[in-house]
Amino acid sequence: MVSISRGRFTDRTEEPVVVFLIGMRINKLWALGRWVPAFLAMPKMLSSLRADPGKGFLGGRTFLYWRGIMMVQYWSSFEQLESFARAESEPHLGVWRRYNKAVGSDGSVGVWHETYLVKPDEHESVYVNMPKFGLAEATDHVVAVRSRETARMRLGGQNAPAVESPPMK
User: Fold this and answer.
1) Pair 22, 9 in one domain
2) What is the mean pLDDT of each run of 10 residues along the chain (169 residues)?
3) Would you state the torsion angle of the CA atoms of residues 37, 42, 45, 49, taken in this order, to the nearest 10 degrees?
4) Do 86 and 132 belong to one domain?
5) Which residues constitute the domain of residue 94?
6) pTM
């Protein structure tokens, strides 16, 4: 069973983090031979990343939605993400080549990604009565009190809470 952290928490990191969103959209449901290989490629890539923390992968979470799948990934640096994507020795490059050859621009399945460089003092997060999640799972999971009480305070500013936080139990 998942352990719930009761109360308000946030993430803490002194180093930049890369947030990488990657996904696939099935445009033609009946084109199984086009989208199934792309769908099945991600577990092998994740196994490779989890086997070696030195590659810079900090963790991630997968989300399913109608006609698609998305993964939010956290990386130590863009350089490590790019190195993984381009390395002949890693599974991603072969998957990318096969996708381009098999699917190309036929429209049957779409792939996408977005990359965000997140500086320690230019983001904020809050997790209330949640298991470790998101940036707090990938970095440090800390109580959101005092200087971390509000979104503005977590971004380095000052203000008072609009709603009093419940006491920690």
Assistant:
1) no
2) 94 97 96 91 94 97 96 98 97 94 94 96 95 97 94 94 85
3) 180
4) no
5) 17-118
6) 0.92
